[in-house]
Write a structure and sequence with these properties.
Keywords: Transcription, Transcription regulation
GO molecular function: DNA-binding transcription factor activity; sequence-specific DNA binding
Number of helices: 3
Protein name: HTH araC/xylS-type domain-containing protein
Number of strands: 0
Organism: Actinoallomurus iriomotensis
Shape: flat
Order of helices and strands: HHH
Distance between the termini: 28 Å
InterPro entries: Homeodomain-like_sf, HTH_AraC
Strand content: under 5%
Structural class: mainly alpha
Largest sheet: none
Number of domains: 1
Length: about 60
């Protein structure tokens, strides 16, 4: 859901609630597993999909 553009209107707290988790627990667990917050992950993925400043992975 975090990287799905159709779900961009949902905040991280809403996504956590839909999974039955508190926003704090979800964010902490996500960062522990992936090394970045859900918000950072979402921002980076949307930038990559849009060809943002760093472009898609593997681009020159």
């Amino acid at each position: 859901m975090l990287q799905n553009p159709d779900c961009a209107v949902l905040g991280v707290g809403e996504i956590a609630a839909r999974a039955g988790l508190t926003p704090t627990w979800f964010s902490s667990a996500f960062k522990s597993c992936f090394g970045e917050s859900p918000r950072e992950f979402r921002r980076r993925r949307f930038d990559e999909m849009a060809g943002g400043p760093d472009g898609p992975p593997g681009s020159p």
